Amino acid sequence: MNIVNYIIIPDEKEVIQEKAQRFQAQGIDLIIYTGGTGLSSRDVTPEALLPLLDRRIPGIEEAIRNYGQDRTPFSMLSRSIAGTINNSLILALPGSTNGAKESMEAIFPSVLHIFRILKGARHD
User: Fold this and answer.
1) DSSP label at residue 122
2) What order do you get walking across the sheet with 81-85 strand by strand?
3) What b/e string do you get for 45-55 counting C-beta neighbours within 10 Å, with b at 16 or more?
4) pLDDT digits (tens, 9 = 90+) for 62-88
5) Residues 6+ apart with CB under 8 A from 8
6) Are 106 and 67 in contact (CB under 8 A)?
7) Which of 37, 44, 62, 73 has the highest count of CB atoms within 10 angstroms of its CB?
8) Domain segments of the chain as ranges
9) With 70 as the cut, is the pLDDT of residue 123 above it?
10) Close Cβ partners of 44 (under 8 Å, ≥ 6 residues apart)
11) CA angle at residue 15 from 38 to 64, to 5 degrees?
12) For the range 3-11, what are the long-range contacts, defined as Cβ-Cβ under 8 Å and sequence gap of 24 or more?
């Protein structure tokens, strides 16, 4: 897996949406946002991304929160989301380093199966 871009963007809906649309249009397989999934007034990542998603993937969202719940009771407050825009997987993870790391631990490597399915492979 190659990292195509790593950028810090402001907590602004329009910027979040523009980046998601641009990267999926470029054929990027995986777009990960960290931060903006909490409950403060500046946390707008889910509100920005949800209208763009073709399909949500609640199982990924549940796995992230469930894994985190075993580590901290505050994970239930996260509004992490997962879904697709065309053939790009979009993840919005907690902004804390530990929260993002644990979220990745919760879903990888299992989530990699998605890319085969999005490209037309059958479930085996």
Assistant:
1) P
2) 30-34, 88-93, 81-85, 55-56
3) bbebbeeeeee
4) 999 999 888 888 888 889 999 999 999
5) none
6) yes
7) 37
8) 13-118
9) no
10) 11, 12, 13, 16, 36
11) 35
12) 4/28, 11/35, 11/36, 11/42, 11/43, 11/44, 11/45
pTM of the predicted model, to two decimals? 0.92
Please state, in angstroms and rounded to a whole number, the distance separating the CA atoms of residues 123 and 118: 11
Q: What letter represents residue 89's amino acid? A: L
Report the distance separating Cα 71 and Cα 91, nearest Å.
Answer: 20
How is residue 86 written in tokens? 């065309």
- CATH 3.20.20.70 assigned to 13-118: no
- In the block, residue with structure tokens 């085969």: 116
